[in-house]
Write a structure and sequence with these properties.
The protein is α+β, with helices and mostly antiparallel strands. The model has no long low-confidence stretch (mean pLDDT about 95). The longest helix is centred in the last third of the chain and has 15 residues. Helix 9 packs across helix 11. The chain is globular. The chain has 2 domains: about 180 residues, Peroxisomal Thiolase, Chain A, domain 1 (3-Layer(aba) Sandwich); about 150 residues, Peroxisomal Thiolase, Chain A, domain 1. About 35% of the residues lie in helices and about 20% in strands. A 5-stranded mixed beta sheet has the order 1-7-6-4-5, sandwiched between helices. This is 3-oxoacyl-[acyl-carrier-protein] synthase-3. Pfam families: ACP_syn_III, ACP_syn_III_C. Keywords: Acyltransferase, Transferase. GO terms for molecular function: 3-oxoacyl-[acyl-carrier-protein] synthase activity.
């Protein structure tokens, strides 16, 4: 059976870098928030709306990824775009697809393309689809590109949120970034995507909702943080992973992961997810990779932005087995197990 591997990884950040204090100083609602103390987020990048958008970030990440892949754009069979926002970042546009436009701009003349929308689970959903296309022999090489321009939601919170219990608090943690991942056929288990699976729990569907504001022209995001971080919900990823492993006849401890990467919501939240993992799996968690303090919550791009950051600093050796844990919009959970090789230069 064909298997896929993560052949290359690219990323792009907006030029504008801000401290959390600098962002909060623009608050016009009169609210006061200690976002850095609560979340650990000290810095973030946000787009300049006059020069940057979803497509410019996506193209930059795609080209960065191709530069380290050994492939030309024309070698790609498919491009899947997994970003939450489409096109200019300020309007939801479904046609033409962002994937198709990114393919055109980078010269991927032989690639078909389509978008998937699954909130902060978009990248993992794209990899899930691409991995299955490669396993089925439908494509040989493809790219998942995720440009996240979600700071407009932060602008809504700056105008409307009033205190730390406000449902728009989480919007004050958001930032912009893009990642791109090339998958091709694996040769052996020494460098491969071992498995990827996801689940949607409808009972949590109301915990995180983005929508137009009822009182202003802003986009806003409303989050029930207390329920999101309560034990039943934050244990869901580990219970799902435990069930996936049971079907394979193995356990978390037997998987011997070298690292684990959670969705970068905040330092404290990833610690709670790790605690839940240890409890449900009955095993210690491997070292956590995290960079939320440097980049904020960049939505669907967070997991691979973390990996890119550690790889750029030479902190991940080839042959590392990594557990990625996506959680999205309160109700999407999943797991990706992969051993990396060529990513380490």
């Amino acid at each position: 059976m064909n298997r896929s591997r993560i052949r290359a990884l690219g990323a792009a950040l907006p030029a504008g870098e801000f401290t959390t204090d600098e962002v909060l100083n623009r608050m016009s609602s009169g609210g006061e928030f200690d976002v850095e103390r609560i979340t650990g987020i000290a810095h973030r990048h946000m787009v300049d709306r006059t020069e940057e958008d979803t497509l410019t970030l996506g193209v930059a990440a795609a080209l960065d990824c191709l530069a380290g892949s050994g492939y030309d754009p024309a070698d790609l069979d498919v491009i899947i775009c997994g970003g939450t926002t489409v096109h200019d970042g300020f309007r939801m546009v479904f046609e033409p697809s962002a994937a198709g436009e990114i393919a055109r701009r980078i010269g991927a003349v032989n690639a078909t393309g389509y978008d998937v929308a699954n909130a902060c689970g978009g990248t993992m959903t794209g990899i899930y689809l691409l991995d299955n296309l490669i396993r089925a022999g439908v494509v040989r090489t493809g790219m998942v590109v995720t440009p996240e321009v979600i700071s407009p939601v932060t602008e809504g919170a700056l105008a409307e949120a009033v205190d730390a219990r406000d449902p728009q608090f989480a919007a004050l943690t958001l930032a912009d970034a893009a990642v791109a991942v090339v998958l091709d056929r694996a040769v052996d288990d020494a460098e491969a995507v071992h498995y990827i699976d996801m689940i949607t729990c409808a009972e949590y569907s109301g915990l995180c909702i983005a929508k137009p504001s009822d009182s202003t022209e802003n986009m806003i995001m409303l989050t029930d943080n207390l329920t999101m971080q309560a034990a039943p919900r934050r244990e869901t990823w580990a219970k799902f992973h435990r069930d996936v492993l049971a079907k394979k006849g193995t356990t978390f401890a037997e998987e011997n992961f070298d690292y684990i990467v959670f969705h970068q919501l905040g330092v404290g939240f990833t610690e709670k997810l790790a605690e839940s993992g240890s409890k449900i799996h009955g095993a210690p968690m491997p070292p956590r990779l995290a960079c939320v303090e440097k980049y904020g919550n960049t939505g669907a791009s967070t997991h691979f932005l973390v990996l890119r950051d550690y790889l750029s600093r030479g902190l991940i050796p080839a042959g590392s087995k990594i557990c990625f844990v996506p959680t999205a919009s309160g109700m999407v959970f999943g797991v990706l197990s992969a051993t990396i090789g060529e990513l380490v230069k």
